[in-house]
Structure formats: structure tokens, C-alpha cells
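In this section we walk through a basic example: taking a raw amino acid sequence and producing a predicted 3D structure, encoded as C-alpha cells. The instruction is simple. Fold the sequence below.
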Amino acid sequence: MRNPLRLLKRNSPKTSEVTPLDGVDLLLADLDGVVYKGHQAIPYAVESINRAHESIAVGYVTNNASRTPASVADQLTALGLTVAPDDVVTSPQAAVRLLAELVPAGSTVLAVGGDGLHSELDRAGFRVTTSAEDTPAAVIQGYAPEVGWVELAEAAYALQGEGAERPWVATNTDWTLPTARGTAPGNGTLVSAVHTAIARLPVVAGKPEVAIFEEAVARFGGASPLFLGDRLDTDILGANRAGIPSALVLTGIDRAKQVLAAGKNSRPTYLIDDLRELFEPYPHPVETTDRRGDRLVTVRGAQIRMSANVLTIEKRGDNPTDLLRAGAAAIWGSGLAIYGLEVPEELYA
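The resulting C-alpha cell sequence is shown next.
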């Protein structure tokens, strides 16, 4: 017998009174695109995180490998948050822990990156070089604005010929980096340059790999965490792999187009405009079927019809994000790839 409560919930037009933070005891946040862009705080981010921190633990998880946890904490404190260096989990920390499993303690390591990476290597007792001629035991690569051709070439030299079996660890492979001036190339583009030269791929430590999420949860001791991110391919995919509920906030890299096309492993638990919505009842999509057998997906005043592979906007509602939520739910529940569907252009906006 089918569960009548399940049917009632499925067909009820009412909005749930449950907020994304209900039952959460640890809030984990990405930085770029979630808390700030460049040196500017994203609207409502600081106030919302401070409000959450009044009752639950807050930690910060970043793939940015160019800075130390202390410098990140200083920046966040200047924005109005209360942050200690230990509240910041970085991809260099995860990468150096991974490196320690691959080469002996005290080994010479060729490092491509900034202060954030170098300081973690020093702390772990590795000898750092920037030249392949020093015969390093491994190569570790992270982002820094000053990384250029010379540094990438040294990494390539160290990883070919007699060094073809040397471990190569990348802090992260984010293709892009949100800045105050726009979207810039991320560490993934720099890693790709070395990969193109040597036809090898690195072991990756940061998001979307699970290690950095497990370190964050273990450090803060949360039993019911929520992860905040702005990227589907790193933040949300990584949180899903780690079994952590997630919220995609539409203030960074990924927007409507990427949300609608998200693969099944990169779909967030919540989709929010800004961090104020962490405290508001979340409008989960409600699906019904009409007499023609078409699927109707409703989010408050917005409604999407799906007939075969054609999506139609039945009601726009008052909130564009509700329309996006309805459209995403319709597409994700169809079992069809985005390229096999006819999607109204308005949804992408």
C-alpha cells in the first residue's frame, strides 16, 4: 500500500515551514562567490553568517591555495566576521596531508604556488624547491596570482623523463576564480597547462574530493552539517560525495544555465538567492500530474509544465528563483539530459 502521507506531501500546495538551517549544527562555507568577491563582502553574507554563528559552529572551506589560513581569517574579520585561523580549512592543508602519504617526511618537494602552500609545506617538515634540477621527490601545485610560465615549466620538467613516476599533487582544479573585476582563470587552468605538456594527471586534494570535507567536519565536530557553495562542479559535487547537504547560493560562478544542466551528482539540496534565505521557510517543489499525463512542478506561485521533452512556463510567480527551482526540479526529475529537452529561454535568465 502506498504511503498516504507521502502522497499528501507530494501533492500539497503549501510551503514547508522548515528552513535550510533547521537541525543543522555546523555551517561550512566556501569563500569566493559565497562570502566575498575580491575584497568586497557579498550583500547579506556577513550578517547572515554572524546570525547563524550565534547558535551553531561555522567553518570556512576554500580551494584558494594562494593564502594562509591566518590571512584568510584576517580578511574575514575585517569584513565583520569572527574568525580564527583554525576556522579556515584550505586545499593546501588537504594537499600536504595527501603528500605526506606519498613521500617520506623531510623530502624535497617542488612547489608551484603561493604563501598558503609554502607555509603548509614548511609546517609539515618538507624541504621546498622551485627547481626541477634539485631532483624533488614530488611536485605539488596550487594557485597564486604570480604563477607564470617559468614555474609551470619547472613542474613539467620535474614530471617527465626520469621524473615520470614522481607524485604530482594539485591543491584543486577549479577552472575559474570569481574576482571583483569578473571571472578569472583558476588553478585548473594552470594544472591543465602542465598536464598538456606531460600527458599526466595529478592527484587532487581539494574540492570536489572528499578529504577536505572530512577534515572540516572532523575539525569542527559537527554531526549535522550544511555546506554553502557557489559552484556545482566543486562545492556541490564534493558535498554530495561526502554525504553533506548543500545550498547553492546564486552569488558566484554558477547561475541558472548551469543549475538547469546539473548532472545528478552535482545537484544541491537547496537553491538560494542569498544567505538571508537560510533562515526562511524553503519552498520545496511540488509535483502533480494532470489529466493529459503531463507533469506539473509548482514552487509557490511559479509552475512548469513538462509534456514529453517540452518544458512550458505555466505561471511565472513573483520570484524568479522559484521559477528556476521549478524548472530545475522538472528537468532533474525527467531522467533526460538537458540537450534532449526544449527549455524556454526565460528559464536560463
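Looking at the output, two observations stand out. The chain has three domains: 20-63+208-279, 92-204, 286-348. The first strand starts at residue 26 and ends at 29. In the next section we compare this with other chains.
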